[in-house]
Structures are given as structure tokens and as C-alpha cells.
Amino acid sequence: MMRDPYRLRRRSLLTGASAAAVVGAAAACGDEGPAGTADDPIEISFEWWGDEARAEVTQKAVDLFHEKNAGIKVTTNFADYPAYWESLTGRMASRDLPDVFQMDYPRLRQFGGSGMLLPLEGVVDTADFRDGVLDTAVLDGELVAVPVGTNVFGLIYRPDWFEEAAIAVPEAGYTWDDYAELIRTLTGTLGEGRWGGGDWTGSYLLAELWLRQQGGSFYSDDAAALNFTREQLVEWWSIAAPLVEDGAVPSPEEAAAENAPGVAAGTVATEMRWDTAINGYWATVTDTGGELGIIPPPTADPANLALHLRPSMQFVIAANSEQAEASAKLIEFLLGDPEAAVILGTNRGIPSTKTALASVELDEPSQVVTDYEATVEQHLADAPVVPPAAAGAIEAKFTEIYEQVQYAAMTPAEAADLFFTEAETLFASEQ
Fold first, then answer.
1. What does the buried/exposed string (b/e) look like for 63-84 if buried means 16 or more CB atoms within 10 Å of the residue's CB?
2. Alpha carbon of 212 to those of 29, 129, 170: distances in Å?
3. DSSP secondary structure string, 67-85?
4. What is the rounded distance in angstroms from the CA atom of residue 149 to the CA atom of residue 139?
5. C-alpha 155: how far from its chain's center?
6. What is each CA distance from 126 to 134, 214, 410, in whole angstroms?
């Protein structure tokens, strides 16, 4: 549980000249690090979301930081995902955020766009980050976060089931129609209780991928509006309808069941997810003799897979922090120290820095992810615009309204009209 989530620390907001002064002070100190001694250390706070396993390895890495930086004391807190964000959003008004905290990419604009985050250019050393991983950390021209780990969209699949069905695994560039036919063929071959895939059109993120493959985007460049048409949404929400009608994918009732079909449940052959999701499936599938692999998702244009490196999560420094230099030192240590990398492993995704990636011992599923990301590197495109602050609510509405289509309570056209109305309301609430 998070301890004292609303504790006040009476810090002034660092903006403009104040922030510049912090950067200048940090540069002036050079490699000597911030002031502070073992007897009178500088104190900073660090918070994250996650389970006990994440807390254990993170605390070990922080303890190692203490050993190597006796003049800095780090107070740590963690919580599960809902409680963590409830606490942070509640503390935004009082500007009482932790010095360093873990950021979820869809929430970056909510915090960064309201002046809650310290610009990190010249504060955190970014020279060791892997190519392209910092693109999603830039908001309105400023670097306001650094990625902890990365992932890429992929199709997680069962190679053993493809072999059983004598069906070839598709190569990069196959289309959405090809994928639908693949699902239909697998379902027909694998037999009762197993499907080739599920209905993917309720996914807001996959809709964004589909739009980007056609040269479009889900949001406008300023993330202030939707950037596609009702007709495009109707088309997207109609793609999988024939599969649902034929029983080639699980029915809405089956998909909503407690023991829902899926790759991890041993009932579905393919599933589109961020590639690191394979870590959560690995033991369940392989312990029963199954196999898992990753290939690129289908595309609307074989010449444009529209994949991009996405941060699994990010680290940020609060604008209200009075210890920007010490906070930066902690971030640099957690992401770039070889010993810390070994401790943290791939708990937060494939490491974002070259040093950490070279230092960590990858387990089998993480190696599969790393190999996959190497194969699609040539297909990586620029990241989409940082989502609006209302992105979470928009995603929830997207899924909620599509359920009306699944249960035949609305036509795709009616649902698209409702979604656009709801999205406009959510955007207006940001103003």
C-alpha cells in the first residue's frame, strides 16, 4: 500500500528562470554530484505502481544506489495501478508530487501539459538511450520524461498450432483481409473450443495502428481533436463482423466470460498485443508443452507497417521538486548502472538504454521480444502524437460503444455517431 499519499512537502514550482537555474546548477556541479553527506543527506522521494515483485527488485536497486551515493536518501512508495493514479491526480492541485515518479505514456500530456513535470533536457543525461526511444518523451517540443523500457505492437501466436494445422506463418506485409482469412482457416482446422483469433476491432490502439498504416492518425497533430472520419470508423467496426457471424472468433458472450478465450488460456492461436505481453503468457503456455512466438501485425499497406517504439513506462521529475539534480542522478542510475540493470531485469520491459540492455540477462520470453524488435526495426515509423489528457476516457468510450455493436444493440454507423459525440464532449472538458 502507498504510505501517506497526500503528505505535503511545501515546495515551490520550478518554472522559467527557476528551472533554468536548476539546470545550470546541475551542469556546474559536473561529475561531483549534488551536495549532501552520509550524515546529512539530500532527501528525495520516488514512487511507482506495480506488484510486490516489482517493489522488491526496485528497492534492491535503490539500496544499491544508496551504497554508491551516500549523500542522497531515497524514500520509496508504491501502490497498485488504480490507487497509484488516484493518489497522484489528487496531489496535482497542491503540486505535491514525488520528486521522481513512474509515468504511464497515455497520461503524459495530463501531467506534462499542465506544468507538473520538469523539462529534462540538460538535467538527465540521455546519451546512452537506444535510438528512437526518446521520441515518445517529447511533449510540445520539450523532453519531459525518459523511457524505462520499450515495446512494439506484435501478433503473439502459437507456432505449434500453426504446425498442427499445416498452415504457414505469414510474413511481414500481410493484410487485414489476409489475417481474417487466416483466423477463419485456423478455427476450422483446430476444432471445437479453439479459435484462430478474436475480434480485434474493439481495440482503440489497433484502430490507431490501422489509421497510421493508411497515412492517417487517431488524433490531430495538437491532440485536440479526432483526425479520422465517421466513415472510417464504420469501416473499422465492420471488418470482423463476418468472422463473428460465422463463429470463427469467440462470441461476445464467450469473450466476456470469466475464463475468456485467449492465447494464455490455451484457446486462441493469435492475439495482437504489445510484444512484452508475451512475458505474462510464457509460463502458462510453455509449462503445458506449448510454444509462443511474435510476428508483425497485419497492415493496410504492405509498405507501411506503422510500428513504433512505445515506452512500457517512463520516469519523470516533478516540477515541484527542489532536488532536480539528485532526482536526475537516481534516474540515470536506475536506467544506466550495469549492476542496477541486472537487479531490475526486464520487470519494466526491454531496457531503454544500451548499457542496461547489454548488462541484463534476458530470460527466454524477453529474448523472443528482443529478437522480434530487431526484425521489425526496419519498419519502425515516427511515434504518433502524445495522446490527449482525455485519452483514457476516450479509449474507454471506444470499447464501451463498440460493445453495443457486438451485441447488435447498435449498427456500426449509429455507434460511430455516438462515439464522435462523446469524444467531442471529452475534448471540450479539457478546455
1. ebbeeebebbbbebbbbeeeeb
2. 44, 25, 21
3. HH-TTEEEEEEEE-HHHHH
4. 18
5. 16
6. 8, 33, 49
* Secondary structure element (H or E) that encloses residue 385, with its range: none
Taking 3-state DSSP, the helix, strand and coil percentages for the chain, each rounded to the nearest 5, stand at 45, 15, 40
Q: What is the CB neighbour count within 10 angstroms for residue 253?
A: 9
Q: How far apart are CA 405 and CA 350, in angstroms?
A: 37
Give the global pTM.
Answer: 0.85
Give SS3 for 247: coil
- Looking at residue 306, its amino acid is A
Q: What is the pLDDT of residues 239-291, one digit of tens each?
A: 999 999 999 999 999 988 867 789 989 999 999 999 999 998 999 999 999 99
pLDDT in tens, 322-375: 999 999 999 999 999 999 999 999 999 999 999 999 999 999 999 999 999 999
DSSP 355: H
Report CA dihedral (124, 130, 135, 137) to the nearest 10 degrees.
-40
C-alpha cell at 235: 469501416
The reported pLDDT for the residue numbered 37 is 86
Confidence of residue 27 (pLDDT cuts 50, 70, 90): very low
Residues with Cβ within 8 Å of residue 323, at least 6 apart in sequence: 34, 42, 43, 44, 99
Distance from chain centroid for Cα 322: 29
Domains of the chain: 17-149+312-373 (3.40.190.10), 153-307+384-430 (3.40.190.10)
Q: Could you tell me if 363 and 346 are in contact, meaning their C-beta atoms sit under 8 angstroms apart?
A: yes
The SS3 of residue 3 is coil
Q: What is the pairing mode between strands 100-103 and 138-139?
A: unpaired
58-82 per-position pLDDT tens digit: 999 999 999 999 999 999 999 999 9
**CA distances from residue 173 to 303, 310, 376 in whole angstroms, order as listed:** 7, 21, 11
Q: Which grid coordinates are listed for 397?
A: 468510450
